[in-house]
Amino acid sequence: MKQTINPLHRTHDRVSDSVLDILDLSTNYLKLDASNDPITGDLSLTSSLSVSGQLSVGETKTNLSGTVLTSWFVTGAAPITNSSASFSAIKGDISNTSNVNFTSGNALRGFFGGVSTQGTGLVAGATALDAVNQTSVTGGQVTNWNGLRTFYFIDTGITATVGTYIHLNVGGKTGSGTFNVTNHYGLKIANISGASTLNYSIFTGTGINQLGDQLNIIGSGDRIQLLVKGNATQTSDFMEIQSSGSAVRFKVDKNFSLSVLPTSTDQSVALVGATITSEKVAAGSDATQNSALNITQYLRGSQNYTNNNYGIQGFAYNNGTGTASTLTGMQFGIGSLTNGGNITTGNCLFLQTFGSGSGVVANVNGVVIASMNAYNTPTTSKAIKIVTNTVAQGTSKYGIAIEDFSGATNNYAIQTNAGNIVFNEGGDASTDFRVESDTEANMLFLDANADTDGALYLGGSTNGVKVNKGGDVKFIGTGSGLQYGSMYAEDAAITTTLTNANTYYGIASGMTGGSENGCTFQNTKEIKILTAGIYEVSWSMSISVNASDQTIEGLVMAGASGTTAQVQCGNATRAKENGVVYSVSGVGLVTCAVDDLIRFGLENETSAGTVITVSHANMTIKQIGA
Fold first, then answer.
1. For residue range 515-570, what is the model confidence (pLDDT) as tens digits?
2. Burial (CB count <10 Å: 0-12, 13-18, 19+), residue 475
3. Alpha-carbon gap, residue 368 to 164, rounded angstroms
4. Considering Cα of 12, then 17, then 21, then 25, what sign does the dihedral take?
5. What pTM did the predictor assign?
6. Most buried by CB count within 10 Å: which residue of 74, 196, 510, 621?
7. 601: β partners
8. Which domains does the chain have, with CATH numbers?
9. Which H or E element spans position 242?
């Protein structure tokens, strides 16, 4: 019959007391060896006896079934002097001193204890091992207090070989019975608090921490929920997430640079490198700036940064041997989902410069598109491509819309350095090209379908110049066309005395103004130029001379005072008879400045002192160049 030793609550201060007397047991259950020394002797228990309760005497050794159990029980007053020794209420060791193999996974146990229920009654709480640290004296001090401490000890000069060392092994269910449990915890730690400086639920030193399932962090206060600190001399990656094959798929390197490196062989599912979804629910009007992703790069220090520095840099590579139909480095989009929310302005990509520093930015580029031929030799390169959008929705669609671009000394909404510009490459009949001026909506207007084949309007589509396919030019509406002017004399008798031979004289009066556009007839003799440029001047005169056999030259006089002969426009006639009317005419190009004057001119290349009479004359000028 199995017997139990009841707890003893008395203490003894004389180590010479008989152990058997102290335990109040007969030798049927406990046996001291021949030394009869309760300090160094061995105390044997029969195999049919279990011990329970509190033992309060010095060190006792017991041999049981070839196993040594050493226990040191300490109670009573504290040692008289300070001691560096360790004191234990219970101390147990188990040693294999033989050459026998123990094949069970739990063959040797320093301590073994458990709780079992063999009845149908309710057990409110069952604890296999309950360790309580307690102080019962005010002012008691403990430097380090351990609820449970495990360690290994290897004697000097001894080499131990252990396959796996587990300090604390929390096993799961064993046995074939049904285990009906609502909540199962391998390790449950209650609230750890009360310390004045640091409170740790779990604290580890060096060594890898490995979890076989989810890590669930539920915050119990307003604090950092996950805090990871690197070593002061960190050289390896700061954090990695690896695949089952140890391939790195997510990492934070020593400089806190984040890399996402996903891979997939599943062709039925789209592969997304990183997905960031933010959702904000505001009860009322929300005027804050919300961002799903906010990336900021700071360049600090006084050194120069001479290479490219990017806030965001994105690449897409085809690193295989197959063909990628479309490869996009970066894609941005906006939209509204199914709840019917409105968007006043949607920007797929918004670029701006900002800051409050005193530094000078020499050049700002909203978008820089580098070489499009850096990879092999593309058949077609398009720096910017706006794909077809023919969905019938909305009121207005703009492929590119550039608003007011001003404020600098030189302002360019669009500037090109080299390369052709093509509009309406597809030849769409409804695609027009239009340029506005301050007051004219169609200062330059290409109507793709006007007159069936299209027409180009200059200066306005109502009043201006119309150029049809093939080069036909028409002035339309009230547009006055090119710069021109005219003057004439009809049945007149305008006399001019040529005092000296071979000298040019201007006709001083007698002319009548004709039609003018961009110039002015004045002083009954001249046309005043209002627009500088090259003018074609054509003229003719009917003249008579008061002497016979005279060579008379007619020409154009020009310049600021209208006195400079334009010999390139001159022509001459031989007046053989006195009083007979002869005709002379000419045409030429004259370069005029603003306010220059255009007149008729005469010269006698034969004699001096003759008088020339003009009965008919006409002159027409028109600008043909700048």
1. 999 899 999 999 999 999 999 999 999 999 999 999 999 999 999 999 999 999 99
2. middle
3. 59
4. positive
5. 0.49
6. 621
7. 506, 555
8. 1-76+85-97+108-113 (no CATH), 433-476 (no CATH), 484-625 (2.60.120.40)
9. strand 239-242
